[in-house]
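Title: Prediction job returns without error message
Component: structure pipeline
Severity: low
Priority: P3
Assignee: unassigned

Description:
Job completed but the reporter wants confirmation the result is attached to the right record. Sequence as submitted:
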Amino acid sequence: MLNKITVSAPGKLMLFGEHAAVYGFPCIVTAVDQRLTLTLEPTNSDKITINAPELQLTGYAKNLADIGKGEIPKAAQIIEAAISVFHQKYPLKKGFTITTKCGFSPNYGFGSSSASAVTTIKALSALTSRNLDQSRIFKLAFAAVRLIQPKNSGFDVAAATWGGTLIYQLDHPVQELNFDLIQSNAAIIVGYTGVKADTPTLVGQVADKRNQNPVAVSRIFMAVSDIVTQAKVAMAGNDFVVLGKLMNFNQDYLRNLGVSSEKLETLISAAKNNGAYGAKLSGAGGGDCMIAIAPKAKVEQINREIEASGGEPVNVAIGAEGVKIENN
């Protein structure tokens, strides 16, 4: 029998294009160096056990034949969906225990659910010696996430799978961007509002707005798509001033969609008023995190102002490695 398998996948930050991505427009997403780790330990029984301590789930168990059926606790839904999708494609023979450990707060909106799905598929691939490539891991994990989150566009699954910084567009090949800030004089700053966003509700609100005024919302999405194109060029040239302006433009459109919030605006203003090139919300909005791009010399000052404004600075590096086996 194989020994236990430990797999990790990164969290993500949306840099440009949120909400438009749900409707098939391109976006730019980056993986962050805070990771979710999943350990799978094979057993000789037919029982599947899931432990997710950060979500107050311990000892949740059911037989392999019952996976995907019946009542499922919210904390186990994504992992059980991933097991079910894999099992339908590649039938499993025996049970196992899965335990997750999240290196970041699930409240940040860094994509812990998608990272859970991706690590589950990767671990099952190793368990069954199938060694699935990234494209197949993405396909199965995305199918699992969509069982629970039907409106999910897949960018968070892509970031957890491939890592790095990506241009992602639904039903298109993933494009990897060379965007490395380590040797540059700029940095990405992240501030958490302290408010956990309700992504399905926010996506639904934008859908309602689109139904009520399809022409105006379509124009917004097209403008955001153009911002993504311009951001790709600016990233290639390390033009941080332009990237900051594009963040500000993107935030204007997100504000028009009604997904910003007073707390997000406060933190965005704190960053811009203290030397950031630009700032915007990252993700669905309503809460979670804002991001800014700024000269490295301004990072400490901006983080202090974010904290003074009631936010929580979150120290992350972008462009992190995608899903990987830590030991086998």
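Comment from assignee: result matches the submitted record. The chain is about 40% helix and 25% strand.
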